[in-house]
Amino acid sequence: MVATAQASILLVEDSDTLAATYSAYLSKEDLKVQRVATGAQALVILEQQSPQVMLLDLKLPDMDGLKVLEWMVQRSIPTSVIIITAYGSVDSAVDAMRLGVSDFLEKPFDAKRLKMTVNNALKLHRLSAIVDDYQRDVNRDSFHGFVGSSLPMQQVYRMIEAVAPSKATVFITGESGTGKEVCAEAIHKQGPRAAKPFVALNCGAIPKDLMESEIFGHVKGAFTGAHTHRAGAALQANGGTLFLDEIGEMDLELQTKLLRFVQTGRFQKVGGSQEEVVDIRFLCATNRDPWEEVKAGRFREDLYYRLYVVPLHLSPLRDRGRDIITIALRFLQHFAKEENKQFRRFSNLTATVMSNYNWPGNVRELQNVIRNVCVLHDGIEVLAAQLPFPLSQHVPEGSVEKIEPQVAQLSTDELSVSEESASEYTIQPLWLTEKQVIEQAIEHCDGNIPKASELLEVSPSTIYRKKQAWEDANLA
User: Fold this and answer.
1) Could you tell me which residues carry 4-aspartylphosphate (predicted)?
2) What is the dihedral of CA 157, 159, 165, 167, to 10 degrees?
C-alpha cells in the first residue's frame, strides 16, 4: 500500500464491532487510526487537527453524517472523506459527492476494498495539497514591492518568507535593475523587525572618503566640514535592518572595519573614542559575482564568508516570461494617471516586441520605457511605433497597426438616444455580457486562460471560478 508514513485516519463509526473490524483491516498498514463513535466527537477532532482521511458513517447516533460534511465544507477542512454506510442510496451518494466526498463504500465490504479505497483517498489528499500550493503560488502575482507570478518570482517569495524570521545575513545577487533593494525591504517587512527602521546605503553612489562617515557617523571636527555630530546608518538602523547595496564597491580598508562591526555590533564614529553598540540585521547586495570579486582581490574573503550566509538570487527580467507585460501594465496604469493620459493597454505587436526584448536594464529599464511613452504619446493602446529606442529597432519593418481613436468628450446631442433607437437596443443581463467577453478572450488566446486573464486584467483564479459557476448553473 502506497501511503505517507503514519498517515492519519479518523474512523467515525458507532458500532464497536464494525469499528474493530475496520481497524483490524488497516492494522498492517503504516497508518495511525483514531476512532470516535459520534458526530460531535468527530467535530472536536477535526477542529483540533486535520486527519488526511476520514471514514465516516452516515448514520450516527447524534447526527446525520451529511451534517458533519457540511460543517467541514463551511470551515474548509482539507480532510479527504470516505462515506461508509449500510443505507446506501443514489440520493445520499450524490449529496455526499457534492460536498466533496472522495469515495463511497456500502456495507459490507472486505479488507481489500477498504485498503484500496483508503489508498486512493490518501493519494487524492496529497495531490490536492500539491494543487492548492500551486494555485496559491500562481495566484500570488505580487508580494510586498514585487510584481510578478512567474516561477522564478514564486521561488523568491518563498525564500523571503523562509529567511525573514531569522537574523541571518542575506546576500542578494542579481543584475542591475532587478530589484535588490525591493527584495531587502521585503525581507525586512516580512520579519519581526518590520516596525523598526530600514536603512539602505548604496556603497557605489557614495564617495569612498565619506563612506565610513555614512555608515558609522562622525563627531564634530572629525574632518573638514564636520561642523556637527552626525549619527550614521548604524545608529539610525538600531533595532532594525541595515541594507548595504553594491557592497563590492566598498574600499578594502573599510571592509576590515565593517567585518568587526558585523561580528560584534560595535563601532566607533569617525573621530570619536566612545564605542557604540547596536542591534542590527545585515542585508547586502551586489550586481557582480561576489566570489569572483574575492578571487580578484577586490573583496575580503573573511568578510565574504561572514556575509554570504543565505544567498538569494534575483532572475533578470528576460527570464520572467509573462511578468514583463504584467509589470508593464502596472507602470502604464501609474504613469498614464500621473501624466493625465488615456493609455489602458498594449497592442498585440507592442506586447510581442516587449516580451521578446532582452531588457539589459531589467525592471528599471522597463519603467523608463513606459514613462517615456506616457510623456510623449497618448491613446487607448500603446502602439509599437510609439516605443522608444532601442525597442523601436525590434519592431518588424512594414508592420502596420490600426490606431484606435481617443476617447473624446461627447456633446449632449451625441449622448442623447432617440426612443426609436433605444427600442432597437436589446439589454441583456450583466453576467451574460461578462460571460461572452471572457469566452471571447479565451478563444482569442487559443484556450490559454492565464494569457486571457492578463488581457482582461483579472486573476486567472477569477476566470476559473466563473467558468465553474457557469458549468454548475448549466447542470442545475
Assistant:
1) 57
2) -130
What H or E segment, with its residue span, contains residue 361? none
What is the rounded distance in angstroms from the CA atom of residue 419 to the CA atom of residue 441?
33
Whole-number Cα distances in Å, 458 to 177, 438, 454: 27, 10, 6
Q: Which of 111-115, 242-246, 247-251, 417-421 has the lowest mean pLDDT?
A: 417-421
Largest pairwise CA distance in the chain = 94
Relative to beta strand 198-202, strand 170-173 is unpaired
Determine the topology of domain 143-315 in CATH. Answer: Rossmann fold (3.40.50)
Name residues whose C-beta falls within 8 Å of residue 295's C-beta, 6 or more positions apart in sequence.
Answer: none
Q: What is the pLDDT of residues 257-295, one digit of tens each?
A: 999 999 999 998 888 878 899 999 999 999 999 999 999
Does the model's pTM come out above 0.85?
no
DSSP labels, 63-91: SBHHHHHHHHHHTT---EEEEEESS--HH
Handedness of CA 215, 179, 371, 392 (dihedral sign): positive
User: Would you tell me which CATH number, out of the four given (3.40.50.880, 3.30.43.10, 1.10.3720.10, 3.40.50.2300), belongs to the domain 7-136?
Assistant: 3.40.50.2300
- Preceding omega of 360 cis (within 30 degrees of 0): no
Neighbours of 401 (CB within 10 A): 15
The cell 566607533 sits on which residue?
Answer: 268
CATH 1.20.120 fits 430-475, yes or no: no
CB 362 within 8 A of CB 319: no
Higher pLDDT, 135 or 384: 384
